[in-house]
Amino acid sequence: LGVLSFSEQASSISNKTKQEIIADFERTLLGEHMKNRVNILWVEHSDKDGRLELNFLIPKIDLVTGKSFNPYYAKHDQFNIDLWKRTINDEYGFTSPNDPAKEQNIRIDKKDLEHYNTIAELDKTLKELLAQGAILNRTHMLELLSSNGYTISRTNKDGISIILPNQKRPNRMKGGIYSAEFTDLKKLSELGESQSRRIQRYSNRDTQTEC
Q1: Tens digits of per-residue pLDDT, 134-175?
Q2: Is 8 helix (H, G, I), strand (E, B) or coil?
Q3: Half-sphere exposure for 49 (CA within 13 Å, toward CB)
Q4: What is the torsion angle, in degrees rounded to the nearest 10, for the CA atoms of residue 193, residue 195, residue 198 and residue 199?
Q5: 84 domain-assigned
Q6: What's the whole-model pTM score?
Q7: Which of 38, 57, 92 lies at the terminal end of a domain, its last residue?
Q8: Residues 142 and 160 sit within 8 Å (Cβ to Cβ)
Q9: Are residues 145 and 129 in the same domain?
Q10: How confident is the model at residue 122 (pLDDT cuts 50, 70, 90)?
């Protein structure tokens, strides 16, 4: 049982493309020898904001021999499947989860929209204060947050975890102004340039060398 999940809307991907992806996945996972000896059930869903999900169920039975067959061993197959995902995303121009441009500062459960909007507003306010010169570095920002009723439950080199007033759940905020490398405005500028270079390198990478 598994799922191929895409950021793209189901309606924007043709049935022909979906069938090509399914066939290619089966060939990658099972190989030419086994792909016709296993009865795979595919079900399409688009109930999550219209995004395409291709759910599959693979009975662990070889239809030819009737014997048990395990189609997936993580230790041996994970690398090939990850490589297949990157190849499919590049081939069809789909959004890649490996794209550094898709990284987010805020790491929380987006199902709670009211909570997410509150954190997003805090993130926006902090960046506005930074632009106004009211925040000098991460240490200064943490002091500002603490003095305004926010609890800093965790800090490390990559980011911080914040608990909002009157709430119990920590919210992970990562990179940029939340990074320990934000020691002054010059360093923050360097972090931004580094991120831009990462995005550029990702966009210009030689996809052939990944195969």
Answers
A1: 788 889 889 888 887 888 999 999 899 998 877 888 899 888
A2: strand
A3: 6
A4: -100
A5: yes
A6: 0.47
A7: 92
A8: yes
A9: yes
A10: confident
